[in-house]
Amino acid sequence: MDTNFIVIHCSATRADQHVTVEDIRRWHVVDNGWSDIGYHWIIDRNGKIHHGRNAQAQGAHVKGHNHESVGICLIGGIDENGNPEDNYTSAQWLMLEMLVETLELRYPQAMVVGHYFFTPYKTCPNFIVEDWMSNR
C-alpha cells in the first residue's frame, strides 16, 4: 500500500464526554457493520495514543482514499450544542505533533491533511490542518 496521505479526524464528541477507543470501535463495528475500527491511531483526551487498525491494513476513515492513507482520530471536536469546536487538550496537541512527525518519517511522500480535504462539506477535524502544520 502506498501511503500518500496522513488524515487527521475527530470523533465529533464533546470535550466533557468520556469516549474510549472501544466506544469508537463499537460505533464502527456494531453500528456501521465494518470489520474493525476505521482509524489507525486514536489520541484520547489525556494524550495517550491508542492503536486502532494495524498500520499495514487499509483503514475505513476517508471514502475513496482508504487505500492510500492512514488515519488519526482526536477524541473531541464538538461543543455542547453539537457544533464544530477545536477543543483538544494540550496533551492531545503534543501527542498529535509527535505522531505526525513519526509518520512523516515513515511516509515521507505523504501529505498531512484533515478529513475535510477529501470531503469539503465536512469540517473534521474542526481545525485547519494546513495552518497547524505551518505553525508547529
Number of strands: 7
Radius of gyration: 14 Å
Q: Which regions have little confidence, pLDDT < 50, spanning 5+ residues?
A: none
Helical percentage: 25-40%
Describe this structure in words.
The chain has 136 residues and is an alpha/beta fold. It has a single domain (5-135), classed as Lysozyme-like (3-Layer(aba) Sandwich). It contains three helices and seven strands, in the order ββαββββαβα. The chain has helices spanning 21-31, 90-106, 129-135, and strands at residues 5-10, 13-14, 41-43, 49-51, 69-74, 77-78, 111-114. The strands form two sheets. Strands 4-3-5-1-7 form a five-stranded mixed beta sheet, with helices on one face. It has a two-stranded parallel sheet with strand order 2-6. The longest helix is centred in the last third of the chain and has 17 residues, at 90-106. It is globular, with a radius of gyration of 14 Å. The model has no long low-confidence stretch (mean pLDDT 96).
List keywords for this structure.
single chain, alpha/beta, Lysozyme-like, two-stranded parallel ribbon, 3 helices, about 25% helix, globular
Topology:
Layout: E1 5-10, E2 13-14, H1 21-31, E3 41-43, E4 49-51, E5 69-74, E6 77-78, H2 90-106, E7 111-114, H3 129-135
Quick overview of this protein structure:
The protein has 136 residues and is α/β, with parallel strands linked by helices. It is built from 3 helices and 7 strands, in the order ββαββββαβα. The chain is globular.
